[in-house]
Write a structure and sequence with these properties.
Number of strands: 0
Order of helices and strands: HHHH
Structural class: mainly alpha
Radius of gyration: 17 Å
Strand content: under 5%
Helix content: over 70%
Number of helices: 4
C-alpha cells in the first residue's frame, strides 16, 4: 500500500491564484476593450472577434481550472492532462490578445505577459505532477 501523497501543493496554490488573477484579467481586459471601442475608431467587424476571444477564454478557464484542481487533488492524470490541453488553448487565445487584437495597449501587454507566465509555470507543474502520478 503506497500511502505517499503525490498531489502538488505548489500546483494547487498556483491554480487558486490563477483563478483569482483570471477574474481580474477578464474584467480589466473587458474594461479596456470597452475603453478602446469608445476612444479609438474601432471597426465594428473587429470588436466582435476580440470580444469573442475574451469570452471564449473565460469559458475555457472554468473547466481548465476545475480539471486542474480535481486532477491534482485526486492524483488522476487524465483530468490533469485535459486541463493541460485546455491550457494550450488558453495560451493560444492569450497570445491572440497579446499580438493580434485590433489595439494592444501597454496594459494589455502586461496583463497577458503575467497570464502567459502563470500558464507556463502551471503547465510545468502539471507535467511534473502527471509524471509523479504515472510512475
Amino acid at each position: 500500500n503506497n500511502s505517499s501523497q503525490l498531489s502538488s501543493l505548489p500546483l494547487q496554490i498556483l491554480l487558486y491564484v490563477n483563478g483569482i488573477y483570471y477574474i481580474f484579467y477578464f474584467l480589466a481586459s473587458l474594461a479596456m476593450l470597452i475603453y478602446k471601442s469608445q476612444v479609438f475608431s474601432y471597426p465594428d467587424d473587429f470588436l466582435a472577434p476580440d470580444l469573442a476571444v475574451l469570452f471564449l477564454m473565460a469559458i475555457l478557464e472554468v473547466p481548465r481550472l476545475y480539471l486542474g484542481f480535481s486532477g491534482n487533488l485526486t492524483e488522476a492524470e487524465v483530468p490533469l492532462g485535459l486541463s493541460l490541453g485546455l491550457t494550450v488553448g488558453s495560451v493560444v487565445l492569450c497570445v491572440y490578445l497579446l499580438l493580434w487584437q485590433t489595439y494592444v495597449l501597454r496594459a494589455d501587454v502586461l496583463l497577458n505577459a503575467v497570464l502567459l507566465a502563470a500558464y507556463g509555470l502551471e503547465s510545468g507543474l502539471k507535467v511534473t505532477a502527471i509524471a509523479a502520478f504515472v510512475s
